[in-house]
Amino acid sequence: MRACLALVPFDDRQSSVLAYTGVIALKFDLKVSGVLVPPSQEIPAYLFDHAGLGVPYIPARDESVNQALRSSILAAWEKTKQESQGFTECKVLDSVNEEGANAIGRCSDLVMTLRPGTLASPGYDLLVRAAIMEGGAPVVVLPPGVEGQAWGTVMVVWNGTLQSSRALRGTMDLIKGFEKVVVLRTRQSDDDMAGTYLAIHGIDAEIVDLGVRNTSARERGRRIAAAAQEQNADMMIMGAYSEGRVGRYLGFGGATEKIMTSSAIPVIFAR
């Protein structure tokens, strides 16, 4: 894991992304680039129907206000670049669109974002979800106000799907940085593939089974979040949207959405 992309919001609360990314970059010697997501534009919703993730009509903002905020955010990036090891350049996206969304994370090992819904910015929320759905890299979703990271316990959610496998394999470097690793199995099984895989990498993980059979997706999400609290987890790692694009359009993926929008700790999603 070497290349990190910070998805910087067009908002004064971008400090959380910069501060948190700086902590991760220092610990794992990452090279960090940034993408500043532009402010919301006056665009009809049908242009943003990405994998069923349509957004409402967005009114235009005063360009003078936009320019001042853009300058402030880029200045904050330059300050972080001078003070933190590994930061490089921050690119300003011309617009929020599906092409730009699909490109997020394609040549990165890790993507840093704020939680969707934290800002009054449907365009930013679109890119966060598109980065998870189409970017290909694990995406760190930060709860509001987080700036540091404790390295006590990480909880890996395992259900045997391709998505959970990608989440586990794609974050091995990060997992090794924690003192304790808990594998939360959400499907009853006699095997211990995740635990065996971690053991091969020199990690002795605690295995915890979670009974979520015959429960709704959102109920699974609530129980997973509760398990993270019970384990005093400092970070959660899990697969996302295993139902696929059609299922996402039809409203499935509720466990992913529940955890994404309510977790009190950083969550890494991979698809």
Quickly list its features.
10 helices, Rossmann fold, alpha/beta, globular, 271 residues, 2 domains
CATH architecture of the largest domain: 3-Layer(aba) Sandwich
Q: What is the 3D form?
A: globular
- Number of H/I helices: 10
Strand composition percent: 15-25%
Pattern of helices and strands: EHEHEHEHEEHHEHEHEHHE
Number of spatially distinct domains: 2
Strands, total number: 10
Q: How much helix, percentage-wise, in residues?
A: 25-40%
CATH homologous superfamily of the largest domain - what is it?
A: HUPs
Backbone structural class: alpha/beta
* Mean pLDDT across all amino acids: 85
CATH topology of the largest domain: Rossmann fold
Question: Which regions are unreliable across 5 or more consecutive residues at pLDDT < 50?
Answer: 42-48, 50-55, 245-252
Main sheet attributes: strand count, strand direction, barrel closure: 10 strands, mixed
Question: Over all CA atoms, what is the radius of gyration?
Answer: 18 Å
Main sheet: strand order: 3-2-1-4-5-10-9-6-7-8
Task: Just give the CATH class of the largest domain.
Answer: Alpha Beta
Distance between the termini: 17 Å
